Amino acid sequence: MDLLRSYLSRVRIPEPTNRIYKEECCISYDTPKSEGGLFVDMNSFLAFGKDYVGWNYEKSGNPVYLHIKETQKPVSEDRPLKKPTLLAIGIEGGFNNNDPEFEASYEIVILPDYVTLPFPSVELPEKVRLAVDSVIMNTGAEKKEQVAAWTADTKIISKHAMDLKQLDNGIVVPPSGWRCEKCDKTENLWLNLTDGSILCGRRNWDGSGGNDHAVNHYKVTKYPLAVKLGTITADLEAAGNAYILFVICILLRIYYAVTTTIFLMILEYYLQQPHGQTEMTTAERELDHNTSFDWNRIQESGKEAVPLSGPGYTGLVNLGNSCYLAATMQVVFSTRSFCSRYYKNQSLKEAFDVAPADPTVDLNMQLTKLAHGMLSGKYSIPATKKDDAGIADDTTLTAKQVGISPRMFKFVIAAKHPEFSTMRQQDALEFFLHFVDQVERINPGNPDFDPSKSFKFGIEERLQCSSGKVAYNRRNDYILSLNIPLHKATNKKELQKFEAEKDTMGSSAEIVHPRPRVSLMDCLDCFSAPEELNDFYSTALDAKTTAIKTAGLTSFPDYLVLHMRKFVLDSGWVPKKLDVYIDVPDIIDISHMRSKGLQPGEELLPDSASLDDGVHADEDIISQLVSMGFNYLHCQKAAINTSNAGVEAATNWLFDHMNDPDIDEPMVKEQKSSLHIDQSKLDTLVSFGIEEEVARKALQATGGDIEKATEWIFNPPPGLSNMETTPSSSSSVVDDALPDGKGKYRLLGFVSHIGTSTHCGHYVAHIYKDGRWVIYNDEKVGASQDLPIDMGYLYFFERLDG
Q1: Is 465 annotated as contributing to ligand binding?
Q2: What b-and-e string marks burial along 308-347, b requiring 16 or more CB atoms within 10 Å of the CB?
Q3: Cα end-to-end span (Å), the chain
């Protein structure tokens, strides 16, 4: 007890702002349920497993710890099931899947000799008792973050809905045959909830859509609320996207606020009358069948998967819509670059020694923790089947593991990101790009230590206008996004036969809609095929003309990620998913996609005079984009980054980059005069492995500030780096700063998506490992029995000579 009193100055009583970790070790996946329990530092309130608490003592000098050990309680045969009160999994009040209950025991431990003192005990100093009681009583930081992420968004009620004016003008809304009152439009119709008028919606940039009659009606009358006809349904589950749910919520709110009027008539008609939707249409039966088929096929449901465990076969617990993270990380850490960087070549001790005082917020530490958790096999423990009472059968293993919960990693990688920090489903592609960007940021000036570099490659676009002159634009990317040429489907006859016989099928027939099959090589050829661009601004002609664009790769990365553009916009600008199969071979050769650079006899397009004063963007393109509702600055960047190729190209660029972190940063104009460059600063940047020309340009653009120049290099302003003309006199273009080799690749793994949108549904990974295909479905890890290789969303290829 005297020893403890001598260390009272190193014991702190937690304050309300302190984060207390007591659920999981901050450098491993040990928990209070682990064999050695968990040790909570009574000064920093960080938690450590038995094998790692000594490292913290060596680094911090903090000697006093609260040791927490949880043991399983005996299971009562008549234990009642708890009713969930929170939409969450694995936390108090949430769904617990009948998991066993545990009982916690506590003791005080003093390092380095591991002297133990019982708790509770009246002999302990009051400060220690208060500090320990506070740690025990307070909710751990891990659970606080999880509960906060699950908290529903604040519902915003329209002020118009609460006090909606509705006219008793005798208008009756017909059950069908709707038509715009101002024109003959029969689609994209909106019902005004004040006067019952039915008018067409906005006109799209290409002339499709409506004629703006609903918008113009609002401008004249100021009647604020309208609903799109055809979106109201009695079945909330049938409302397949957040937009429809939002409309329904508004309508229901109005329903409770207004007792009579047009709305009641509309609601009564749609929700109560027999001519409302009572059975599936043919299209809906197709969708229902295809969706069920996707779930079963991609997850290999109904197949008795052979459970796999050990190093490299560790499942990741679903934290709540975190399958996009789990699937992506399983493939990423199957690459040699990430495996070497964060597992083979960096121990947990090395990462902890260089981490800041709080390793829970250090991405390098959490990446190393995740790598060791996934690849060491320490936590790859097969789960056992449970009976109805929740009692495990030790003899029957399942493909579902106990796994590891990547909470701390998710918290760090998603910090300050408005979407990934929530518990909502996300796009695996967007997460992958965000992930590699963050990894690159923590390895500045150290390309040899940056594993994200193994995914990076160069793209070169060649533009030739009617003058015969050319321009070359180069940029770097981590993914190759491919359009799917449905017109090249290999099963056209089967599709045509189905469409011809579709209308003759009975209403009770099960609709099995054949999907188009497209070869992956056709998708790759589509990327590099010549494309005609209209309204291209030619600096040689000083006018708009037609140009031909072709694209190729300046380098072949160690790992090539192919993104299949299955989510497209239909004619009404409504997102939809393409139901298509991609025939993917095990080996691909893309050597023919190598870009050639400036060829002998080619003449470059002259620089635009307006570029002397900054970046030039076609105002016609900008005005059309702005009329569609886009931000002016975003439109300006879109026009510049597509070389003023036209509205369609700029629109595609906007959709691909609207979530870029620098999308709202102002345009940066290059300086006219050449700023004097401090040679010492230039030499410093060059010593980081940066090319001298790039370093010089960065210093000029940032006024000689070396810190800003470094940021400029790794996060270049839009419109400068990516679209800079870079002529080459050689027969081929090779970027020495990027990995490169031959163009032959082998399929390493793929991530599949189930659902109608990237922001709903489920993600699953399949990886070729140890001579067999393995399915990673959150905690489920097993040998694949029915490989859905043709249903991938992201394909990861490994270069054979890497």
Answers
A1: no
A2: bbeebbbbbbbbbbbbbbbbbbbbbbbbebbbebbbeebe
A3: 61
Asked if residue 616 has pLDDT above 50, the reply is yes
Cα–Cα distance between 684 and 220 in angstroms, integer?
64
* 160 a catalytic residue: no
Tokens of 636: 């300006």
Beta-carbon contacts of residue 211 (< 8 Å; ≥ 6 apart): 180, 182, 183, 185, 200, 203
Closest CA to 19 of 151, 137, 144: 144
Ligand-binding site membership of 676 (annotated) = no
Distance of alpha carbon 642 from alpha carbon 644, whole angstroms: 5
Would you call the peptide bond into 224 cis, given omega within 30 degrees of 0 as the criterion?
no
Question: By the 8 A CB rule, do 172 and 264 touch?
Answer: no
183 is in an annotated binding site: yes
242-257 and 262-272 helices, crossing angle to 10°: 120
Instruction: Return the CATH number of the domain spanning residue range 293-384+398-453+741-799.
Output: 3.90.70.10
Architecture per CATH, domain 1-75+99-140, reads as 2-Layer Sandwich (3.30)
Strand order in the sheet with 102-110: 47-49, 38-41, 64-72, 102-110, 115-119
Ranges 83-87, 170-174, 628-632: which has the least confidence:
83-87
| Phi, psi angle pair for 382, to nearest 5° | -65, 140
Domain ranges of the chain: 1-75+99-140, 153-279, 293-384+398-453+741-799, 457-593, 600-670, 683-714
Catalytic residue among 26, 323, 339, 523: 323
Residue 155: count of CB within 10 angstroms of its CB: 7
Of 606-610, 658-662, 669-673, which has the strongest mean pLDDT?
A: 658-662
Strands in 382-424 per DSSP E: 382-386, 392-401
Q: What single letter denotes the amino acid at residue 732?
A: S
Q: Of 67, 372, 616, 762, which residue is the catalytic one? A: 762
Spatial separation of the C-alpha atoms in residues 67 and 212, rounded to whole Å = 68
Q: Which CATH class is domain 600-670?
A: mainly alpha
CATH class of the 153-279 domain in this structure:
alpha beta
Cis peptide leading into 575, omega within 30 of 0? no
457-593 shares the fold of 1-75+99-140: no
Tokens for 564, please give them: 């299949």
Rg, the chain, Cα only:
30
The residue length of the chain stands at 802
Task: Answer yes or no: 563 catalytic.
Answer: no
- How many Å apart are CA 725 and CA 604, to the nearest integer? 9
Q: Which pLDDT tens digit goes with each residue over 571-583? A: 555 667 888 999 9
Q: Are strands 115-119 and 780-783 parallel, antiparallel or unpaired?
A: unpaired
- Please, what is the Cα angle at 29 between 148 and 305, to 5 degrees? 95
CB 615 within 8 A of CB 640: yes
The string of pLDDT tens digits covering residues 142-193 is 666 655 554 444 455 667 777 788 888 888 888 788 899 998 888 889 999 9
Instruction: State which fold the 457-593 domain adopts.
Output: Cathepsin B; Chain A (3.90.70)
Residue 267 predicted with pLDDT over 50: no
Ligand-binding annotation for 217, yes or no, is no
For residue 700, give the H/E element and its range.
Answer: helix 692-701
Please say if the pLDDT value at position 75 is more than 90: no
pTM above 0.85, yes or no: no
